[in-house]
Amino acid sequence: MFDGSTMTAMQTTHSHTPQNTYSPHELALEIKAFISGVDQTQGRKLSVRDHARCAVRLLCTVPACRGAVLEHLRGVYDEYVSGFLQDLETEGDNEGGSSMDSNLEDVIKEIHSVLSEFIRLNPKAWAPLVSTWAVDLLGQLSSKHAGRRAAPHSSSLNELLQLWMSCAATRSLMEIYSQCLAAMLAWCPDACVDALLDTSVQHSPHFDWVVAHIGSAFPDTIVSRVLACGLKDFTAHGYPTGAEMTNLQGARASPSPSLAAMDKSNRVPKIGSVVGILGHLASRHSDSIKRELFRMFQDSVCPPSQPPPTTPSGTGAWENSVHLRRAAVPFLLQLIALSPTLLGAVSAELVDSLRPPVLLQLQSQLQGLPREELENLLGLAVHLISQFPAGGAKVLRFLADTATPSSVIISGPSPSPHEGVRESCDRLLQMLLMHLHKLVYNRPDGDEPYAHSSFSSSVPPTARVIPFLEELQSHIADLCGETLRLERKRHLWLHQLLSLLSVYGGPSVATEALCHLLTLARNPEELALASLLHAPLSGSIPRLIPAAVARCVAQIHTQNLSSRELSQLLNNLATAVQSQEEDRKGVGGAASAQAFMSVQVGAAVSNHLHDFCPLLLHGDHAVSRAAARLLSCSQLPRSATPAHILVIARAAVAHFFLALRQRGVGGLRDGGRGGGEAVTYSMRLLSRLAAYSPLTLKAVLQQLVEGALHRGHADLFGGQATGDDTTISPSPVPDLGPSLLDINCKFGTTVNFSGSVWSVFHAGVIGKGLKPPNASPQLDPDRVTQNLQTLLAVTVQCCSSAGVGSGANSSNGSVAGSANGSRFKQSSDEPAPINAEAAKAIAVALVENICPDVTNGELAWPPEEHAKTTVERDIHIRRAFEANPILFHLLRVVAAGRPALCYCSVVLRSLLATLLAHWESSREPLVLDSPWQLQASCLLVSCMGEGQLLPPVLSNVHELFPHLTPFEVRLLLLGIWEYMRGNSPMPQKFTFSAEKGLFYRDFSRDGDVARYMAPIHSVLHKNIDQLGHLCWRFQV
Amino acid sequence: MPLAERKSMSDIRHSLLRRDPLSAAKEALYHLDISLGSALQTSGGSGGSPPIEKSSVDLVEEFIFHAPKDNRNVQTKRLSCLQELQLLEIMCSYFQEQSRDGVRHLIFSALFGLQGNQVDDSRMAMLSKLVSMAIAVGRVPILECAATWLQRSHAVCCVRVARVLVDDYCKVVPGSAHTLKQVFNTSPAFCCQFITAVTALYDLSSEDLTPPPALLEMVVDWITEDPRLLLLTFLNTPVPAGSQSRGCLELTPLLGLLRWSVKAPLANQRNRKHALANGHAELEKGAGKGVEYDELYSKLHLSVLQVFLMLQVHLTEKNLIGQLSVLQWEHVVGLVDEVGRLGEELNPLHAAGHVQLALDRLAQAMQVAMATGALLCARDELRPLCSRLPHNNLMQLVMSGPFQPPLYPHIHAPRPTGLPPLPPHTSPLSPHIHSALSPHAHTHTHAHAHAALSPHNTHTHAVISPHAFHPAMGFPYRPIR
């Protein structure tokens, strides 16, 4: 019985295939025709086209003919391809040559549709068969026709691809093959890729387009399969033996790149094509290549106890073979070594995969290798690292981290497995450094030995690029930071690397490195690294230090340094400069590397002093202190312009007062050390400046006086911040006074002076009671004293050093003197003569600052009655003295620098006038009741005596004052006035005494003093009971 | 004769060496024909076929199959596919044109018979291609020769040839199945042997060894068209006792077909489970096809049962009842084991229906086989065997059936010695077989094929009870002999 229903079902399933309705006889005829190529019924020869049709028919009907038909079809494809190329070649000549093509093209389409239908219906049976056929045919076609005129050269892959894909035959084959592959990937991917690779090896460059095309269609599979096949082949051919490896390395060491090329081409054949294929794919599928490479690596090192995770694409069992796993790492290294693209793909992320367990496994795997192989492997690894285009910094950090012993305890007598890893890394790192060293120092020579096969083509021979160093150049800051951590060993490596980098990168890199070191070093040990780095470089790179310093200055200007770094930098520079001074003073002869550098640093810093001086006023005290330190210890350049110097001077004085204030504030915080240092540096700087030139001396002194008298600084020296202009003074009471607008509005109607701006007097505003007492907080008297002493010390230093010019001397003296207040005393113990010019400068500055006008400002004294005309000025000056106790001290300094006090004549006169007025009006029984006036009188007179405006007999009268009544004091002071009127204080009355270095006044030339002595004697007489012991002081 | 012959052989060899491979092969075939033809004549049909000479064998090996010679370093070129096709064509026409059956068979076995028990791959491949081509172009003589070859060769080789044919016609080339189907009309003997080989190949032990749908359909069509096809070889082989021990195929495909029908429900279920586990979501298709296949398998089962009944007639005629076990006891034991294992392998909860169906079929088949004398065994032996299987009502009935009349006195008796051993090579195929087949006689019995197979159909049970089918009962088949 014939079951019709099932049969029709069958027919419908296959209805799309050509229904074979041939009888056995017809089929026999068809076979005969196919074999003989002659139509059996008509007896004529079959055309290519009909023959092919016949073959296709047989393919569909007679299974036994399959092999023969496929073989025959090869010829058809070949025919088509030659025709196609022929047309291309003759295209320019005539257009009508494509008739045969169009004939064959439909046959090819037919074949294609039949085959692809078969594959679709039954992939398991057809795909292996057709894929090998197609791939073999493709290989044959592309290598056979490679030499044709129309075919582009095999190196231009894209053109090749374009040509072949435009040819219907090859495109159809390619599509069929892709279809097969897609079908086969599910169950036997190894076989099809093996075939592909074999063919690729066989038809080497001409077949590349196929692999490239297939590879981009199935990137993941192809990549992983290609790798697996390559690995298998690699293991099968054995590791590259020692000789071959030395060949490879020898390619680097020997000047014949051809050897390396040959070596590469005829050794392990598959690795070459693996590299080629991956290279093609790398342009577009570098991600999957990278992934697969890493996967292979991970699988090879993951511990064998746990089975590797089965990946969907990976059915290859290479992970399971110990042998293959062991070969994987050498294979990968070799692979990467042969292809810069792969190297680039891997380098960036390699380190991330090297976790400790992986390392352990790797270590145990590699331990099994023979020693020589291991050496080769290491050499290869080192070479690869030096070629890393990216990720070098990561690798370096990894190596250093791993190679650094974690602590002393662990590296004990019993080496742990980690110890093994560490040692390997240590060795690797050292080898790397040596290798780099070789590369770097051999580089400038044009024909230096290093010429690796795969890189020699891409890199012009003159400029050897070492990608590893190239990349590290951008990480110099990090490197420097790491180096400065001064960890065992590590900083040695890094330091070596830094110097290599500097040599490699030339001046710019070296400068940058030095600059970083200078900025980041935190103590002298770390700073020593900079000089260590400088020593070897100084030979090859001229003017390194100036460049580095210039770079530092530029950094300062761009203000991208934090204030901590800034102060570090300044301190480091200062230390460097100072070490130079110490060396010069100390051993002298033994010019160490440090000294060598410091000399240069000193010179370089000197040239940039004005760049540093803004830092003196930096908001951060540490920075300003460091700047002061640097400036204080560096030489002022002779070539500096006055403008620069003046700027420096101004800044230095400003800094001095800041430092004083800071010392007070900081005293509460950090024991005053920082502030004290700052003051010390500042003093040294000021004295250096003063010693530099008369101009600077004057500038400094003038600034100092101005500063000392400045209202903002008054409190530092025990003064009051009140000046004439009360409006500016901070008033605790909010100003509720009438506004000018209100008054103006009222003005027209009533003139009411009460409460108007005109009613403001010294004591306050009329109608509002007395001015509120100035409640500015007074400083601690001790600190006031200290400040006074400091100021005077610096003033005296400036004045006394002016003529001598030995900055070092004075600075040393002040450095030796600690902040215990003995400084002033000490320097007066050994009185350095105060320079007359300097004193004059102070005097002038004083007068300018105190005296509000210059009327009646001549040196000669008028009669006492004339003082009435200058009452206002006198009061002003007296107030200044009241507000600034410092003034008396300054006067004393001036007095010491005879004859400078003469220039203060106006001030003295005004003060004396007010004192006379006071004592005259005083109704107190004792002078002690007006203490300030008493003190002022005494100081004034003694000062004038010191300045030799008065003869000693007269100046001694101040010793009497405390014991007298106000009236008597007035008498005595009047006498002094009289003397001054009689003997005007003129500088020309002084003569210079060479042996003492001072000016002296010969009072004998001024006439008789005795006539001014009468009031004194009468006062003595009157109070002889109290003053008898002083009488001898007043004998002419 | 030997010397002259040998000399001429070496001359021939030298002359052949100078020719191109194809014409050399053709020439070699020609020489083989001449020498064997004359040898057959001299032996004069005295029964024994003349031994094939060593020199001829060498010639064949060298020039037709291009077997590599290890002693001589002559480069042996493999034929290209095209040349191979031409060679096949040459052979086809040769066998077609050779009119003498004896010579043809002799040449065929000279070409493809196994020498020294070694399996020659290229020769097997060539044979498979030749048969495949003969099927395509309808060369009956070759198919007849192939049938004989299949009968005499070792099962392994037969299975290989069968696999190639199934691949060619049922798997690879779509739509070519009907070409193979024509074999039924052109050469029933080959068809029968082919079925035997195919059932030996596909034993349903794995997914790959499940018969492809096209094949199954074809076989069922053949059998339903004429069930006697299955007994063709059995009936044409004079004394079926001898050949079984040599590792050849069995005489009838009955056991294989029985295995198909019994194991199919379980195997399908298992394959579906694997497909599910592998995540192939082709359930719809699978389910639809499954129904279709179930129908085919039940048809197949019915046909097998019918053939058992036919067998009884023939056995009775030949007076072999109780002497010849067509189904061998060991094979049945193996089948029961396989069914048991498959049943365990499947989750009994989900596959209960399938297991029951399989067991029903097994029980039916055993009952019928025992009743018809195809299987020689006693219930007492059956019981321990079948107790391992899951419970099944029908099986229970079969095992604990009514009293069994002592129908088979010779059970377990040693093989009757009265039968004289037959000469090994009487002409194995008699020319009058074809007329014996009448493929249109008997359609009424399986009108309700699956109804008959329902396990609880007591009617069916009654029908195939041993009492109902006494050996004397007539059956509408004309004995073939």
UniProtKB/TrEMBL annotation, chain A:
Residues 270-1027 form the Integrator complex subunit 5 C-terminal domain. One of its GO terms (biological process) is snRNA 3'-end processing. It comes from the Eukaryota. Residues 26-235 form the Integrator complex subunit 5 N-terminal domain. Transmembrane segments: none annotated. It holds the Pfam family INTS5_N. Residues 805-822 have a biased composition (Low complexity). GO terms for cellular component: integrator complex. SUPFAM superfamilies: ARM repeat. Residues 1-21, 805-830 are annotated as: Disordered. InterPro entries: ARM-type_fold, INTS5, INTS5_C, INTS5_N. This is Integrator complex subunit 5. It comes from Clupea harengus. The gene is ints5.
UniProtKB/TrEMBL annotation, chain B:
InterPro entries: INTS15. Pfam families: INTS15. It comes from the Eukaryota. PANTHER family: INTEGRATOR COMPLEX SUBUNIT 15 (PTHR14540). This is Uncharacterized protein C7orf26 homolog isoform X1. It comes from Clupea harengus.
